[in-house]
Each structure stands twice: as C-alpha cells, then as structure tokens.
Amino acid sequence: MKELYPMRGVITTVTTPFNDDLTINWSDLRRTAEAALEAGISGFLAPCFASEIDELTNEERYRMVTELLAVTHQAGRGIVMPNVRGKTKDDCVEQAKRYLDLGVDGVNIFMPTVTEESYRELVAAVDALHPPFLCLQDTKDNELSAAFVKSMFDEFESFRCIKIETANPGADYTAILKATDGRMNVSGSWGSDQMIEAFDRGIHALMPSGLFELFVNVYRLYHGKSREAAMKLFFDILPIIVFTRQSDSANLSLHKRYFQRLGLYTTTKFRAPFAVDAIQASYIEEMIDRALHIRDRLPQYWQ
To answer: What percent of the chain has pLDDT over 70?
Structure first.
C-alpha cells in the first residue's frame, strides 16, 4: 500500500527574470533561488505558469531546471519539480524523459483534460518512465473528480501528489484526501488567500509565488507553534495576497517588483502580455512596503 509522499512546506512557483532584451537573466534566477532556500522554501515548481512556460523554448525550460538543480545540490536541500506541458502526449513524454535525465525530484503534469480516457493515457505514459514521484495539476480547466483521482492513484505507482487550484479548492482538498484515505499528498496554490482553511483541511504543502519568508512563516507557525499565531501573520499579509488574486498580471507584477526591490531581479519585464495600470502599480508599491515591514518584524510573531 502506498504511503504518504513526504513533500511538505512551501514549494515556490518560479517566475522568470528577464533582461531588457527579454533574454533570461540566469544570474538573477540563481540568486533568487538561493534566497528562497535561505528563507526556508522546500523546493521549486519550474518551469510553470508563473514562469511564463508557454513563452519559453524547450531548451530554456531545460536550462531553468538545470540551474535550479545546481542551486539545490549546492545547498544540500530543496526539490525541483518541472511542469510537463506540450501540444501532444508524445511531446509531454519527451519532456518528462529530458527532465528525468537531468535528475529532477519529480514531475508535474500541467495539461487540460480533454477526456478522462486521454488524460489517463498521458498519466500512464509518464508513469511508465518511473519518475521518483508524479504530481497532477488539478485546475478549473480540468477539474479532476475525486473518484478519477482515486482510480489513478490506485493504478499508477508514481502518482503520489496533486496540486489543486480549482474553483472550489477547499471542498476538493477534503474530497481527495478522503478518497485516498489521506495517502495522497495534497498541495494548494492559487487558493493561498484561504491557506489557514487549507491547513485545517489537512493539505501538506502550499505552492505560491514569491514572498518567501511570509508564506514559510505562516506554514511554520501553524505547524510548529499554534493556529492562533499563524492567523496573526496570515491576517497581516492577507491584503497583499487578496490584491494578487484579482489577475495573473497583478500577481506576477507584484512578485517581480518585490524581487527587484530586494535586489534579486534586474528588471520586471515579461514576455507574456502581462501588465498593470498606473493605479495598480502604485498600489503594488504600497503592498510591497507592507510586505517588507512585516518581513522585518517576523520574530515578533514567534513571541
């Protein structure tokens, strides 16, 4: 019988730092990954949607993984889990092979469900490569039912984890945990504005972008001190998270600007058509001021 896969904590969804000419700034990527691990991040989901994965060439995707693996190996901690995303099943399998050859800790399938049959075939093909673990991304675009997840969990040995960012994530966390007798490793992501509820429901990890110290400390306070202590920090950072939930543009713009103000990113450029207006840009600065103020007084939440 499968046991719970031991992936816990905060797995950051990596944004891509670009130069002014929109080439990738690899030194910024490495510097930010090092800062993430220093802050207590448990690993990296990359490339992913936050990385603008559809704007990256395959070779850029593979190099991103190589760079992150170098950082985690040097640090002696942190997992690297890339998204498998292609136009066809064969594309996805080839990507998974390349990632596994690089030495990743696991892979995440980030593909829509056309039919349950075709999705199961894709999962079977990747499972046949024997990855250390296989994670499936459950979104509002595919909405994997608990019964379907349970059947694949029973059938495919490597399928151990699921990342849920559906329209109603709380109920889905509970349904999948119940269906798998608590043996499926469940992560939240876009629903980080309900992270305390998610922890109450028993999720094991959270996969947000950026704000490393803030997310890590909410998780650690909840699991290592008290729910009450975690709630205090959560409520203090909630206005920041709520702002980022209005759109992908607001979310990614805030995180890139936050990294720039920390001296980790050189620019806040995007390849994808993400943009904010002047009012949002001004509000982003206020929210970053708030984040930095909270970051500077994190020890107080542990008193």
So the answer is: 100
